[in-house]
Amino acid sequence: MAKDTTKTSKSKDTKLLKNNEVKKIAKSATKGIENAETKKLTVSKTRAKKIKHAYAVNDAENALLLKLKNGDVVIEMFPDDAPNHVAQIKELVRAGFYNGLKFHRVIDGFMAQTGCPYGTGTGGSGHKLKAEFNKKPHKRGTVSMARSMLPDSADSQFFICFGDCDWLNGQYTVWGQVTSGMEYVDMIKKGDGHNGAVSNPDEIISMVVIADIDN
To answer: Would you say residue 164 lies in a domain?
Structure first.
């Protein structure tokens, strides 16, 4: 396995995936999806209002409920800033892709990374995305896409920042922000050393689009 070159200082080259080439899952159900194919849930205005109020989100269709062992985390997404990434994340979430995946790389004070089906940082859904670098900063609670050295290599892996990570700005696609439950993200089991590899890592219990939740 290639050596992980991630650094946590502004002056050093930061890479959030271990290899330049990411392994693909055979016969991916999500490969080749288009934005227009992203599933939409039809709900009444009254029901949509109740869902929005329950989780205090601006747009239930573009918000996620991430269940961790210690509690629930709400992530509001940025479809205007990263439309293709948000569309793919929602498609994967609705396919149940993230349920049970491990936080395989967690660096205290930096970030927690997940989204690899192998739990090693080498896998994805098989559908890479063209970078949508934007002006959203990497700060505490920011949710951004992991990638290799190649800008257009993001797939399914993402990370949540524990603190401000300004040196990542403009280099990774920010697609969401934790708006509730960041204290539970802080409790994710940390890895050892600068690589952040985690022994017996914590897992995503489930991820759902808030608009899809049945009350």
So the answer is: yes
In a domain, 100, yes or no: yes
Say if 5 falls within a structural domain: no
Place of tokens 């608009």: 211
Residue 212: DSSP 8-state? G
What is the extent of the structural domain holding 128? 43-212
Burial group, residue 40, by CB count within 10 angstroms (0-12, 13-18, 19+)? exposed
Task: Transcribe 11-54 into DSSP letters.
Answer: TS---SSS-SS-B--TT-TTTT--GGGS------HHHHHHHHHH
Residues 167 and 110: their CA atoms lie apart, in Å, by: 11
Q: What is the CATH number of the domain that holds 86?
A: 2.40.100.10
Give pLDDT, residue 47. 65
Count the domains in the chain.
Answer: 1
pLDDT tens, position by position, 81-114? 999 999 999 999 999 999 999 999 999 999 999 9
Given pLDDT bands bounded at 50, 70 and 90, which one contains residue 16?
Answer: low
The mean of the pLDDT values for the chain is 84
**What residues form DSSP beta bridges with 207?**
66
* Per-residue tokens: 110: 């930096």
Residue, of 58 and 13, whose pLDDT is higher: 58
H-state helical runs in 22-181: 45-55, 83-94
- 76 bridge partner residues: 63, 177
For residue 73, being part of any structural domain is answered with yes
